[in-house]
Amino acid sequence: MEKMQSLEEFYQSKFNRVPENIRNGVGHFNVFTVDEYIGKSHRPVVYSRKDYFKITLIIGRNRIHYADKVIEIRKQALFFTNPQIPYKFEWIDDYKSGIFCVFTPAFFHHFGNLNDYEVFQPEVIPVFELTDQQLEEVTSVFRKMQAEMVSGYAHRYDLLRNLVFELLHYTLKMQPASKAEKQKTNASQRITHLFLELLERQFPVEDVRQRISFRSPSEFAGQLSVHVNHLNRAVKEVTGKTTSGIIAERVLQEAKILLKHTGWNVSEIAYSLGFREATHFNNFFKKKVQLTPVRFRETD
């Protein structure tokens, strides 16, 4: 897997320039057409994490490699990406079109936490296929973004934030109400949110010497200063899953990513994911996937 791509590297590789204000402390935002993006010294997109957020309107058949999954877009869709999960696009046919915006977390400082929105949470597959009518409505929002970028209006960035939120809420309203959309108000929701945040903070694993610190419910409970039974009850109440089950799901996801997109050997991956022995990792992986790590790596 390639190292995390910075916003500067994105601009340099696609446009041979880096905007002067890209790291000015107040955040960065920009919007592009896919046609413009792929027409500038186009090279295949590598599977990697990016250090910025991105919302893409994809028009045309596409195959998205996202974390350990492959999602095929048949006609048109919205795709939300965050700095936690690696991905790449693979166009299936010659027709390629769409619009996308990129922005840094600092762009929304004091305006809300993007990670609170379901479409940017790691456990969600953030691809939303659109009808033709929805395509028109979403395209209209992106066109407003393009117009504001060149408007010269003194408060255009406030408008641009509002347009990003418009896309977020438009997409969330397309989906049935879920726990992730509800405000976390009670004690169980708060402790579950803190647990999930602490779990995700250990990822991505980007260096063979890096090792995750917490693997068991009791270790997480100790860090959160709560009894492990209280943590387990809260997580089960809010998510419907066990604490150990959620930890295992996230470790398995990272294991698949590392097996498919790095050259690390199985022992190195086992160590980075907190297993004391490679055999323990092999047993864990085979139980979950019905394949050994080596066999999984060899599959398409």
End-to-end separation in angstroms reads 16 Å
Q: So what's the overall shape?
A: globular
**Average pLDDT over all residues:** 87
Question: Which CATH C-level class of the largest domain is it?
Answer: Mainly Beta
Poorly predicted runs of 5 or more residues = 177-185
Gyration radius (Cα, Å) is 20 Å
SS elements, strand count: 8
What percent of the residues sit in helical stretches (DSSP H or I)?
40-55%
CATH-level-2 architecture of the largest domain: Sandwich
Which fold name is given in CATH as the topology of the largest domain?
Answer: Jelly Rolls
Derived from helix and strand composition plus strand pairing, the structural class reads alpha+beta
| Helix-strand string | HEHEEEEEEEHHHHHHHHH
The proportion of strand residues reads 5-15%
Question: In words, what does this structure look like?
Answer:
By secondary structure, this protein is of the alpha+beta class. The chain has 2 domains: 7-179, Jelly Rolls (Sandwich); 187-298, Homeodomain-like (Arc Repressor Mutant, subunit A, Orthogonal Bundle). The chain is 43% helix and 14% strand. The protein has 11 helices and 8 strands. α3 (132-149) runs antiparallel to α4 (156-174). Mean pLDDT is 87; it is low at 177-185. Keywords: DNA-binding, Transcription, Transcription regulation.
List the main descriptive attributes of the protein structure presented here.
11 helices; three-stranded antiparallel sheet; alpha+beta; 43% helix; Arc Repressor Mutant, subunit A; five-stranded antiparallel sheet; 14% strand; 300 residues; Jelly Rolls; 2 domains
